[in-house]
Amino acid sequence: MFEARQRVIYGDTDQMGVVYYANYLRYFEHARNELFRAHGSTYRAFEGLGLMLPVVEAVVNYRAPARYDDMLLIGAEISAASRVRLTFVYQVRREGEAAVLCAGHTVHACVTTAGKPARLPEYVVQLVSSRAKGEP
Length: 136
What we know:
This protein is of the alpha+beta class. The protein has helices at about 25-40, 45-50, 120-130; strands at about 1-5, 50, 55-60, 70-80, 85-95, 100-110, 110. The strands form 2 sheets. The chain has a 5-stranded antiparallel sheet with strand order 1-4-5-6-3. A two-stranded antiparallel sheet has the order 2-7. A hairpin with a 3-residue loop joins strand 4 (about 70-80) and strand 5.
């Protein structure tokens, strides 16, 4: 599973001093973008093809709080793909600790900028197939 690093800034926390629940979706997005970057592409390049990946489903399971100034590791991987959908799974841990603070998944539809369903580009399909073969 690819891991992105993210430090919790003060603005990410709520009045109780813990990461506000919706910010985990931002952390998931950060990890998705860094996963593409680690494989030689960017979301901007994806959009350059006239394609977008809107979230059509998001599930978040909160297990323990992250707090201000924690360094988080956000694990992300593509767990499934069809011709027009992509599913990412995530695990958020505090750096240096094994306990999972938060886990979840997002499902994305591949659409054109006009909102019409579109096939996933071949390089995205290869990311899924290389993961299935155990490649980095």
